[in-house]
Specification:
This protein is α/β, with parallel strands linked by helices and 137 residues long. It contains five helices and five strands. Helix 1 packs across helix 5 and helix 2 packs parallel to helix 3.
């Protein structure tokens, strides 16, 4: 799948589990090797890093682990919702938890979706494809 309307082929991932990071990165690269996945394992550092990116270089997608150190995925979204330049970037929260409370809170904050992390490697590609579907071309 090509996303020709996006000049910056960057996905910023907030994830502290190296296995999940590698599996998701590989899934995005299988779909389209032009996607670059940059991972930050700490919520506070994620927001700080995002704030250093120039407007024309902002990522096309933010994928946020619900339970990440210092700031959770939901707390990251809350922080970003107060900064207008991030409103157009789709945000997906993913988690090992199927908690309806976590999902409701995430959706209430305006994320594109709340996704349960897959338990098998084969499903990572499907999850990545689903996440990419929120990027407007």
């Amino acid at each position: 799948m090509q996303f020709l309307g996006h000049s910056n082929r960057l996905i910023l991932l907030a994830e502290d589990d190296t296995d999940d990071h590698e599996l998701l990165k590989n899934a995005f690269n299988e779909i389209d090797p032009a996607w670059q996945v940059h991972c930050i394992a700490n919520g506070k550092k994620f927001v700080q890093h995002l704030d250093t990116i120039q407007d024309d270089q902002l990522p096309a997608l933010l994928v946020l682990d619900y339970n990440i150190p210092e700031l959770t995925g939901v707390e990251i979204v809350e922080a970003l919702n107060h900064r207008g330049r991030y409103l157009g970037i789709p945000k997906v929260i993913w988690s090992t938890s199927a908690s309806p409370v976590y999902k409701a809170k995430s959706i209430e904050l305006g994320v594109a979706d709340y996704v349960i992390k897959p338990s098998d490697i084969a499903s990572f590609r499907d999850i990545a494809q689903h996440m990419l579907s929120f990027i407007k071309s």
